[in-house]
Amino acid sequence: MNDFTYHVPTKFVFGRGTVDEVGDELAALGHTCALVVYGKGSVVRTGALDRVLTSLDRAGVRHAQLGGVRPNPEVGLVRDGVAAARADEADVVLAVGGGSVIDTAKAIAVGVPYEGDVWDLFMKKAAVDEDHKLPVACVLTIPAAGSEASASCVISNDELSLKRGLSSESHRPELAVMDPELTFTLPAYQTAAGVTDMCAHIMERFFGSTGPVPVTDEIACGLIRSLMECAPAAIENPEDYDARASIMWAGTQAHNDLCGLGRNAKPNGRAGGWESHALEHELSAHDPSITHGAGLAVIMPAWMRYVWRSNPERWLTFGKLVFDIEPVDVVEDCIDATPEEAVEDAVLVTIDEIQAFFCDLGMPRRLSELGVTAADIPALLQTLEQNKGPEIGEAQRLTMDDCRKIYESCL
Length: 411
Ligand code: NZQ
Ligand code: ZN
Prior knowledge:
The chain is α/β, with parallel strands linked by helices. The chain is built from 15 helices and 10 strands.
């Protein structure tokens, strides 16, 4: 188990009715004016936005609004938000929504003190001014991306066909209000895509280059087992509070770096190779109508089948902890196979099980279901290389040719 420093400063206010407390919480943190950011309208329709604004009014927190954030958010609206936050002298950016809205809020927060174009920060042409960025708070309405406690922020630039992450410890929101009842209105597809994304956040860390880290492995696989139990229940009965609550909290744990502790990590503290995310982000950058989790449902099993041989022990551990799958004992059970074939069989069954879980929730199996064809692959590889360099990955380094083969294997 490697050494680590772990600091998640986010205050979580979790449970029924907590959305009505956001004003008091922000006032207690000393805030007097919030820029309230939200998406394409779900929070207007469900009444969540009204409840937030009422709560702010009651607590005496002034507010301005910026709606219209789309899934796979674009930098244009971030620029508008930077201007609005400056004009209204906001002292906190409050996201009411999911990963797209929270990431937009995070980008606005770092854009406010920067004189140039906020996209420069994503292109690493300028550094984030940690001392003058605005704090971010959120009211989460869809558990998925884990942005409510993550150090990441992912924004697209349509003009450049790029989708880029900007990681910074200071991105972690200072407050996350998590009311599972707000997620009762989620369509099954979004619930499923969110759960898939959470599983991916756990698995990207699990299948890095580190060997066993038992306590972290158990936390990771326990979260996945819990998601496997709760996701079908939430889809079957969207108002199953306990299922919704478990999914919501699991999504936070999946991406607040807990599941990477003790593993090999990059200087930014992030463990794992994040190959599937790199491959998926190109899909949703080129076609923003692709839901991130749905793209991962296709890419992740394809990546696993391509690389598992570089570290079969990890896949056997995962198979055992999540599905109770073990290689048959070829000697004891008098099976006509080699031990290597038994391992391969156990790993491939494990990967099939993971994929079956995603598909049973309603996620796609192939890229064609997302409208991606062979003709799209060269453009995906071009921006992938631009974003990540000529090779990606950790447990097994992948060239652009490997990446092409992975895309082709799931067309
Ligand atoms: O826009 P509205 O109308 O609000 O509808 C949203 C949107 O269409 C809808 N929705 C949200 N809450 C709802 C609801 N519909 C009904 N009832 C509710 N309570 O759900 C749709 C998806 O919302 P979005 O915010 O896009 O989902 P998600 O949380 O999955 O965020 C995806 C974005 O986060 C990025 C992804 O790449 C993508 O851009 N990620 C961010 C990460 C991070 N910051 O740490 C890590 C992830 O790996 C990911 O890359
Ligand atoms: Zn993700």
